[in-house]
Structure formats: C-alpha cells, structure tokens
Design a protein that fits this description.
Elements: H1 2-19, H2 33-61, E1 64-67, H3 73-94, H4 97-106, H5 108-126, H6 134-158, H7 162-178, E2 189-192, H8 200-224
Antiparallel strand pairs: 1-2
Helix pairs in contact: 1-3, 2-7, 2-8, 3-7, 4-5, 5-6, 6-7, 6-8
C-alpha cells in the first residue's frame, strides 16, 4: 500500500501538470491548523459511529468480544500503519486529482456522485463480492457508495484531503484495528461466537446508520455550517 500511495502521488502530480498545469498543493495537502482540526474531528466522529455500529451489532447478534492477550505494540503499529496506507491510497485515488478535475469541469454534485459510484464499484472487488449474490453486491455498493459520497463532499467543501482522510481513517481504524473486522486479521478485540441477525429490521438499522445517518450528518453540517478560513501552512 505504501508503494501504491507513492505511485498515486506521482501520477496525481503528473496529471495536474499535463492538464491544468497546477502544483500538487491544489489538492489541499499542505497542513494548516484548520485542516488538522478537520482531520481530528472527522476521525473522532467516524470512530464514534464505528463503536456504536460494532457494539450494537454485538448486542443484536448476541456475540461478545474478548481482548487479544497476544496483542502488543508492534501489532498495533503494524495494523494502524496498514490502515493508514490503505486510506491514503484510496483517498488519493478517489478524492484526489480526479475528483479535483471533475469538480472543476462538471460541478460539485455530479463530481461527488461519480466519485461515490466508482468507490462503491471498487469495493465489489476489494471485498471480493463481485459475481456473488446480487443482494450482497447491492448492499456493499450502497454502503460504501454512501461513504464515498461523504468523503467526496468533505473534500469538495473543505478543499483539502484532511477531512475525508480523517473520516475514512476513523471508521477503518475502529473496524480493522479495534474490532478485527478487516483483512489484517485478529487485532485488539476478537469476536466470540458466530452470531446472526434474527430480523431483517436489524440489518436495515445498521444500513441506515452507515449509509444514511453518518453521511447525512456530515453533508448537512458541511453544507450549512462549514466556512473555510484562509490560513498559512504550519
């Protein structure tokens, strides 16, 4: 993922030079105080959503979590580093130069919709569900596509990658590193038992939390209250 992130940075720089002849900094990668606050706020918000999601799921699925007694600092750093690299790669790919150019030429709403659709389709392959059950593919597309909209709109409104990275990172760290729900295996907490939902309404509840409530709150806040400030780089 580190190599992929470096390649994405290079290709972003090259594409900007060949198309609009602008520097890489137009993507909003230079840290400022406001951008760092947006990063932290995004992380905390989606981390909270993640904790609510997984603890409620454990309750309704009647499973529990046990602390991994073999878990240590090196596993924490390794898992967190993997998640960070994956998030940076995906943000550069889906909310980087391509979204910047789309916003410039077709406007924020259409650009964010295209970005969210691409993000949803991408997860068919990253989750290895392409060609499986249609209902599962639709579910994955809607949930990850809604997340893609949230990240894309955060990028468009803040004009930087810090807010979407924070939102994306907050969820992924809680999911993969805390609750061991991801491709990096057992991390801090290990699920005990193989629970299943006893009602389709429970599935709808968590779909609503991930695909409607969280993206809706972020979109509403950014649209109504967010005001960018001109600041010098840190």
């Amino acid at each position: 993922m580190i190599i992929g992130t470096l390649v994405a940075l290079f290709l972003s720089w090259l594409l900007l030079r060949l198309t609009v002849r602008e520097p890489l900094t137009v993507l909003g990668i230079v840290p400022t105080r406001q951008r760092m606050m947006e990063l932290v706020a995004g992380m905390l918000f989606m981390a909270l959503i993640g904790v609510i999601n997984f603890t409620w799921q454990a309750h309704f699925k009647e499973v529990s979590y046990q602390i991994n007694r073999d878990y240590g600092l090196f596993q924490l750093l390794g898992g967190s580093g993997w998640v960070l690299s994956a998030v940076l790669y995906e943000e550069l790919l889906f909310r980087g130069v391509l979204l910047y150019l789309l916003i410039r030429y077709i406007g924020i709403v259409k650009a964010c919709l295209l970005s969210s659709i691409a993000f949803g389709v991408y997860h068919w392959f990253s989750y290895e569900v392409f060609g499986s059950r249609l209902i599962l593919m639709i579910y994955i597309f809607l949930v990850t596509g809604a997340g893609g909209w949230m990240f894309a709109f955060a990028y468009a409104k803040t004009r930087s990658l810090y807010a979407p990275i924070g939102l994306h990172l907050g969820w992924n760290l809680v999911a993969a590193v805390v609750f061991s729900s991801g491709p990096i295996g057992q991390q801090l907490l290990i699920q005990q038992g193989e629970g299943v939902y006893k009602s389709e309404w429970i599935t709808l509840l968590f779909f609503t939390l991930q695909a409607i409530i969280a993206p809706g709150l972020v979109t509403w806040y950014l649209q109504r209250f967010y005001r960018p400030r001109m600041e010098k780089p840190l």
